[in-house]
Amino acid sequence: MIRRTRDAFGFLTILPVGGTTLTPAPGLIRAAALFPTVGLGIGAASWAIMEIIGPRLGQSAGAAFVLLWLLLVTGGLHLDGLADTVDGIAGGRTRTRRLEIMRSGSSGPIGIAAVVAVLLLKYSLIAGAGDGRLWAALLFAPVFARWSIVVLAQVSAPVRREGLGYLFAGRIERMDLALATVTVVAPTIAAAYLWGYTYLAPLAVAALVTGGAVILFRRILGGVSGDTLGATIEVTEVAVLAAILLVS
């Protein structure tokens, strides 16, 4: 379990946890069950940053520092995946051409615009939120986002025989998916019990985004890649942030 935890954090963050081998080894694949746990760690740090910065410099400054933390801890990898995915979908007319654009490594105007839009949405939601359940939004949005890619990878095929998507797509065991799902569903049910059934909304939103991603990427790409997994994390984070803050 310790090794799987280190692999999960090593794969999804740049934290110095001993590193991980980016090959489709069984141990690394099984680390996917702990992806939501990585999200919980990221969210807890975001909450701590807001608690430290917000009262001293204001909520807007706190929101900016939270965004900086999210960018640094992931190395910007998910935002890069978002830009490449949007570029590929918008710029290619065929599946082959879309994958070529995504693989090129250069971001076009629409990809950059997508990154800017996501960052603006995150900042606006965090900076403009009331004190009520901001902690829940910061804590749980990264959890749902990492759960979403476990589901997406488990039910999808890889579009290439290489790359980060190939590590997990179609390889995650159902038991590991179930464990990741329990990590998400249990606190959601607890929140719904404590504060009302409206707190089931984030789970519903995350499920809708994930289901939409499964359908979209299967139809236009034939599966998933590392870029599409990163894009799904970013979109799900925004959607869950909005859902939690709207019902609070």
Folded structure, characterized:
- The protein has 248 residues and is mainly α.
- The protein has one domain.
- The chain has twelve helices and no strands.
- α3 runs antiparallel to α4, α4 crosses α7 and α5 packs across α7.
- The longest helix is centred in the first third of the chain and has 23 residues.
- The mean pLDDT is 90.
Describe the SSE topology.
Elements: H1 2-12, H2 26-30, H3 35-57, H4 59-74, H5 77-91, H6 95-103, H7 109-127, H8 134-155, H9 164-168, H10 174-195, H11 201-220, H12 226-247
- Helix-strand sequence: HHHHHHHHHHHH
Number of DSSP helices? 12
Intertermini distance: 35 Å
Query: Which word captures the global form?
Result: globular
Taken together, the total number of domains comes to: 1
- Note the beta-strand portion: under 5%
Helicity level, as a percent range? over 70%
Content-based structural category: mainly alpha
Number of strands: 0
The largest pleated sheet is described as: none
